[in-house]
Amino acid sequence: MTRKRALSFVSITCLNRFPSRMSSAVTWGIVMGLILAVVAPVAYSRGPLIYAIKDARIVTVTHGVLSKGTVVLRDGLIEAVGRRVEIPEDARVIDGRGLTVYPGLIDAHAEVALRLPKSTGRQPGGASERSPRPPTPSKRPSLHPDRLAAALLQADDARLDKFHRVGITTALTIPRRGIFIGQSALINLAGDDPARMVIRSPVAMHIGFDRMGGFRTFPGSLMGVIAYIRQTLYDAQHYELAWNRYRRLKRGVRRPAWDKALEALQPILKREEPVVFIANEAKEIRRAIALADEFHLNAIISGASEGYQVAALLAEKGVPVLVSLNFPTQPKGADPQADVPLRVLRLRARAPQTPAALYRAGVKFAFTSGFMDDPKDFLANAAKAIEAGLPEEEAIKALTINAAEIFGVDEQLGSIEVGKIANLVVTDGELFDEKTKITHLFIDGRQIELKEAPKKPGAAEEQPTADASGTWELTVESPQGPISVTAVLEQVGNKITGTLTSMFGTTNTEGAVSGATVRFTATVDVQGQSMDVEFEGTIEGNTMKGTVSVQGQGEFPFTGTRPQKGAWL
Amino acid sequence: MKTLHRLGTIVVGLMLVSLAQAEGRSSGQTILIRNATIMTVTKGTIKNGSILIRDGKIAAVGKRVRAPADAQVIDATGKYVIPGIIDCHSHIAVDGGVNEGSLAVTAMVRIEDVLDPTDINIYRDLAGGVTTANILHGSANPIGGQNAVIKLRWGKTAKEMLFEGAPPGIKFALGENPKRSNFSPPPGTPRRFPATRMGVEYVIREALTEAREYMRKWDAYRQKVAARNGDRNDLIPPKRDLKLEALAEVLRGERLVHAHCYRADEILMLIRLAEEFGFQIATFQHVLEGYKVAKEIAAHGAGASTFSDWWAYKVEAYDAIPYNAAIMTRKGVVVSLNSDSAELARRLNLEAAKAIKYGGLTEDEALALVTINPAKQLHIDDRVGSIEVGKDADLVIFSGHPFSVYSIVEKVFIDGQIYFDREADLARRAEIEKEKETLKEQLKSKEKPKKKTEEPSEKPTGR
Amino acid sequence: MKRQPIIAILVTLMALGLGAIGQATPSATIVIKNARIVPITAPDIERGTVVIRNGRIAAVGAHVSIPGRARIIDARGLAVYPGMIDSGTRLGLVEIGAVRATIDTTELGEFNPHMRAIIAIHPESELIPVARVNGITTVVSKPSGGIFSGQAALINLDGWTWEEMELKAPVGIVFNYPSIRSGRFFDFSTFQFKERSYQKAKKERDEKLKKIRKLLDDARAYAKAKEARATDPSLPPLKTDHVLEALIPVIRGEWPFIVEANLERDIKSAIAFAEEQNVRIVLSGGADAWKVASLLKEKNIPVILGPILRLPQREDEPYDQPFTTAKTLYEAGVLFAFQTNDAANVRNLPYHAAMCVAYGLPREEALKALTINPAKIWGVADMVGSIEVGKLANIVVWDGDPLEIRSQVKYLFIKGRQIPLTTKHTELYERYRNRPE
Question: Number of CB pairs < 8 Å for B and C?
């Protein structure tokens, strides 16, 4: 609960006094009550929340573009917008000349600001030694329709910076993997209190097609997953019948068993809540739509890289689409000489055409970061969609009002209108111009400090003031408990090379030292997954502490000591 | 197209009389394949014969077939035409695993849900003359999932590939695979039940018993509803169970059982078990020792879908003989030869020729092994499997005799449409390479080098 | 598993029975007359005679005088071909693919150049008669696995012992050329899919090559030290190293490496490696050989192509690519032969070749690649591969074209001994077709 990278302007020391194993509620209570202002996960400006951006170009989205106007924000809401707006006396004034104001951008599907539950994926499902029968209900794998993303929020996700840097103020968040994954929350990507981040919850049920584990756990195949989804939805339908009957008769009928999962599925069967299916290829989209049709679900497709092939179908079915801007590309580590099939090349070349195709077909769509760990290509890829034929104003809508409409929050979000939530992005140029910089970002009326992306290892600009050489015993506080890592490092100039040894084996590492800050990266093989890890720490004498970011897993604190400096040399 | 109306002539051939249907549902193309050696399978071989295709169906077959003036004419002089080959055991075009091997009974899973219309093996098998394939669940469990019969309509969607009206089916499996003799469980996991042939029988018996009880529950419910004149007040139906529903269909004879098996004892076991539960096995698959119990299989009325000559890859295949198809045929079993392999499916015509070499079947009997017999086994012989008027125009043109190793497939028709044409394939090769180069250049120039982004699910290269 | 001893006993009994059926001893003289003769290395003889004596071909021609006291086979309407050679099999080393106890192809460890296939050949394998009754009289039986799998053996498919079966052993050391295997793969040790990056895979490959180079360097040093001791007995004795010992004939160019490689990249790398190390190689597998045909020709590297009946290597490759590779090699002038890379299905060897004919390889070239080409590649062209006087009488009498499936073998001779055409399969066939109704 205390995983937090040290920020230059806040002290982290208070937090470190609390045992890291303390329950989250207690920790949160203390954090909220006592040191809220000190340990701000996101860097805010402080003071009264009254701003006026004057003389700026304002892209309202819903009411055209004001070439020169003023926006006033007060206490988290847009108080005024227009060409001739009086600037309140108590407002901080931002000179908007040369700047453009947009509504805050919405990432329509992400896995962000979440404490990931331990077992979103594999779980014992019930391949039983003794019995040929399927898993018992208590062992239903990956069945978490009752899980609320809103209840998993963590305000101090270090990745928020990365979203802010591209103007994303709001995201639909939900764990990525699983089958019945849970219900998403639409959140503002800043806030001290997770509870204050939520704009709407639940927004949608999320159903994925992730298999559980080959021959070990049902469902181990894609057809097993689909059969499982189908059976579960039938179970939910029957559950409702049984309870309705019981509620009606009351006497003389045995009471049905209460079931939190089947209970949670009722809103989607009644079409009160939509279902988001992750589907990229045309065949996957067709499968998801067929499943939705079978149960009359309100479907939303997320991903849709091959959506250009099925735009007409999506239009016919009235299915909104959350288009991933994480367009398929040659994966890192791919064999450069491998013959990439035409089918895949076409997908890579044409995926950016999906938004234009959906627009032409009349499909409502919004953009998502598509689970990019760092969504830095978010706007650049939206620009690719424009290049592929999407009108620019439609691209802006897909980043703002469309998502708000799809998620039923268009009264609160998605445009610059009086009374809406004060989420704004201020730029020094056109949003999709690659030279454009974001100058200001407001979330809930608070200005967010934009932090530069960290420099890559090896590009350290400061002269090293510390020597990292030696054998370090590091302890990483992972959610699964502490992990010991032995780092054998050798520093030459500001460059580091060496090895990391842990329960995952030994791998090579390299990095750099800048001042007393040391950064080194490695690729670790964790249970079959190749993961990039990056250590960033500060050396003080023979101790090192900092954070380690693990690709796709978030950041964790680590501490370490160097028992014998240079013994390795 | 209007000229179709003028066509109403009865064409009399020496060997067969065929009626060209006069009422012109004037959609679809009219094609005449002429001057071919036509191996009809069910009605002998016609030398210098013609086939008229209209509206996707075979409209006329014979020595002399009159075609409308606007028919597209394909001259097949010196060539052979056979019905589209039917592969009664295939695993192509399946996404996300052909086995739901986690449980011993997975009757609820459906191949139909996960068909992959982009699998290149569809095209490769099509290029070998296969027009229909029975896509089966794997053999990891005594009762596997539901199969899908497809036509290899390359380029169409998964749904469009389904063989309309083909009866549903399900995979059973006996012997070494379901008991996992040749498969060590992943470290740290318990072995899955069953581990013996005894256990396999018990698992099937248990599942069928459960299905029977499930049927009773539903019957009782329906009776109650009927007794109340349809007034359902206070009544709710029993919970639907997709696994038991599929097995209930088996018990009612509405779902075809395709049972993977090897040894004579297990074949006999399943015959007796099915008889006990009052249904018939549609096909025994592999059934490599079928020749040992051919008369029992014939008496039960099951079909047998086997390999021509694969053997010795495991203990239960050690007594396999290439004479299997011939012996079973002679003992009255409807036999087919299948591929179980995207590769072998490309040359099932030659597999059929082996039944002539090993056991001396006639040409018609041998060709039936990959055409009308599998059609019968899948209960689609009213639509496909032979060249007869009224049947689907699923046809293969070979450069020579289909049993000669030197013959190659030149054209394949499904529903009267050309889905494979060797000339067109040869012509397209350079285009594919060119498009790939163009796309690669385009992608290279667009993608500035950047950090890893996640790839959406894409198949590895080389498929 | 309880069945196995019983199987073993049955196998033995049946095999003994078969042995006893042998109708002619090699010393008898056999005359096959009135046959169409396809000698391969000479023009076909429309109607001629072949005389077999002492296990060898004593005479062949249209006008051959028929010796007295000979057994005469009137082969009117039949055709005489040399026995076919499968240049890559596991015959005699594997009985039942799924039963570990019956598999002797793969020793533990990466470097086993000293493992000898010949001494592990099981003469009573039921798979052997099944292969030979379709006209395959000689095969290369090779070990597999690791990097240097072991020494391949060329055997005739008849003999009471492996010594009697041996035609030439070894014919080379099987070398699984390390490949760069990146991407998703299934790890059987952990039962999970894993992902390996190209960079990592390449590094692993390069490290393997480094190890191989070092081993060959060691072998050279070992050979030198051994030579020195041959000339100077006063030097202290050299500790025997069987691994290095086995590599000496390779570094001397006496045995080739049988390089298993299919991808263009690996084939090119293997060719460069062979040049650098100055060793002889025979390319085996060679699925991408069509991409490097001119290089193979230029470097004079023979290719053991196959299996042919396989799917294309890549999604976009022409559907018939595996069938046209042989034609490309032929047109480039590359010396090639065929292999099934199989054990139970070796009998289908001619159909691998036939598929190449269907897709453009001249039929006579396919026949050569089944007979004289492999004989040349393995250095036994003086003994087998054609019907010529003096060669071993590995002769098959067909009722038609051996490449056509419907053709049947009528007579079969290996080293002049007439082989009964019965197998486990024919026996089961006879038994069960006659099962009472």
Answer: 126
Distance CA C47, CA B276 (A): 64
Q: Are residues A34 and A130 in the same domain?
A: no
Same domain, B126 and B154: yes
Across the interface, which of C310, C406, C428 has its CB nearest the CB of B353? C406
Together in a domain, B94 and B36: no
Which ipTM score applies to this complex?
0.92
Contact A203, B90 (CB under 8 A): no
Q: In the predicted model, is pLDDT for residue C233 greater than 70?
A: yes
**What's the pLDDT tens digit per position in A400-429?**
999 999 999 999 999 999 999 999 999 999
Contact C355 B347 (CB under 8 A): yes
Same domain, A62 and A122: no
- Span B417-431, mean pLDDT? 97
Q: Is A544 left (phi over 0), alpha (psi -120 to 50) or beta?
A: beta
pLDDT at position C38 over 80: yes
CB-CB neighbors (< 8 A) of B330 in chain C: 433
Domain count, chain B: 2
Confidence check: pLDDT of C287 > 80: yes
Question: At C264, phi and psi to the nearest 5?
Answer: -50, -50
Q: Which of B265, B264, B270, B269 is nearest to B288 (CA)?
A: B264
User: Based on the domain organization, do B150 and B184 belong to the same domain?
Assistant: yes
Cβ-Cβ contacts under 8 Å for A452 (sequence gap 6 or more): none
pTM: 0.86
Give residue A473's pLDDT. Answer: 87
Domain that holds residue A379: 105-332+339-411
Query: How many CB contacts within 8 angstroms connect chain A with chain B?
Result: 212
Longest dimension (CA), chain C: 82
What residues make up the domain containing B54? 2-83+418-446
DSSP at B195: -
Locate C120 and state its tokens: 């592990």
- Nearest residue to A57 via CA among A42, A67, A47: A67
Q: Are residues A500 and A381 in the same domain?
A: no
| pLDDT class of A484 with cuts at 50, 70, 90 | confident
Chain A from 513 to 542: CB within 8 A of any B CB: 532
Say whether C214 sits in a helix, a strand or coil: helix
Give the CA diameter of chain B.
74
Q: SS3 breakdown of chain B: % helix, strand, coil, rounded to 5?
A: 35, 20, 45
Write out residues 75-104 of B within 8 Å (CB-CB) of C. none
> Cβ of C193 and A527 within 8 Å?
no
Q: What is the DSSP string of A281-306?
A: SHHHHHHHHHHHHHTT--EEEEE-TT
Instruction: Mark whether B230 and B292 lie in a shared domain.
Output: yes
Chain C residues with CB under 8 Å of A335 CB are 180, 182-183, 198, 201
All residues of chain B having their beta carbon less than 8 Å from the beta carbon of residue C99 are 314-315
Residue-level length of chain B: 463
Q: What is the dihedral of CA B175, B178, B182, B183, to 10 degrees?
A: -170
- The reply to whether B189 falls in a domain is yes
Task: Give the model confidence (pLDDT) of B328-354 as tens digits.
Answer: 999 999 999 999 999 999 999 999 999
Question: Are B189 and A344 a contacting pair at CB < 8 A?
Answer: no
Closest CA to C122 of C145, C104, C148, C108: C104
Q: Which two tokens stand for residue B435?
A: 């498009």
Question: Nearest-CA residue of chain A relative to B429?
Answer: A342
Contact partners, residue C336, CB within 8 Å, separation at least 6? C286, C289, C302, C303, C304, C305, C326, C329, C330, C369, C373
Residue C26 near residue C20 (C-beta atoms within 8 A) = no
> In angstroms, what separates the C-alpha of B192 from chain C's closest C-alpha?
15
Specify whether B266 is located in the same domain as B194.
yes
